[in-house]
Amino acid sequence: MKIARIHADQRDELALVISDRLLPIARLRTLADFPSQLLPAFVTMEDVLHSPSLLTQLQNVDQWIKTHTSRIPESWWESTETTLPVVAQPEKILCVGLNYRRHVEETHLEIPPYPVLFSKFANSLEGNGQVVFMGDMASQWDYEAELVIVIGRPCFKVSEEQALDYVLGYCNGNDLSARDLQFRTGQWLLGKTLAGMAPIGPYIVTRDEIPNPNALTVRCWVNGELRQEDETGQMIFSPQYLIHYISQFMKLVPGDLIFTGTPSGVILGQPPEQRQWLKDGDHVTVEIDGLGRLETTLKAGYPVE
């Protein structure tokens, strides 16, 4: 099942993705022959994250839509080109640095003995098809295509073998980074969590549709030029190990996001004289097998209030 957040009917709505189109599910309640018991109330992503029974209900709604598509008015369908961040206010956004061997090699660093963890804040979240404004405090903007884990159940001190049982699903992510701010001090935070630096989406794909997150291809294009391509099986620390490891130190809760690291091919990994940082008008695309495409456009300056 594919679940998205969109702005429709003048509010934040939950939508299901059917054949690359979005259907805001609240509209179903106005359909005469829709079985109301399948969706007894207005449902948000926050509701789904905190109620496993609602996820089952959504799966039933998803199946109903797929078998009754002809009954749904064409005007009700929305495009996947523009969506909101799949989770609005996660308690935690945890990121992993240096988690692909070739990426470690291109940065001329050592393979870490433990996962390198840092964080972003919710202010950095952005949806699909959105503009990220670059402001005027950084000049070395870079892309990082990543698999993002969305936690679906509370977990603390879970085993590596059971870790994926606590996952709601997966989505594309772009760990946008300002390298000049990232390395200004020994802490990366400033260069990782400016507004819009964590585009995610366009939707969550539930874990039943991604049985093996260790066998996905991650790709990134800038203005149509392929810059990154690698397999999640090349991670130093697998998704299940990351959940296990992090949960030894802190309780993960529904809606928490884990950016699992980026493959080689980032601008930072190029020889200094060849680096051409992202600039005004650049378009970045992230695509991971089965997770759709995440599109982001960079723009100079700040949004007009």
TrEMBL record:
One of its GO terms (molecular function) is metal ion binding. Keywords: Metal-binding. One of its GO terms (biological process) is carboxylic acid metabolic process. The keyword Transcription regulation does not apply. Pfam families: FAA_hydrolase (PF01557). Belongs to the FAH family. This is 2-keto-4-pentenoate hydratase/2-oxohepta-3-ene-1,7-dioic acid hydratase (Catechol pathway).
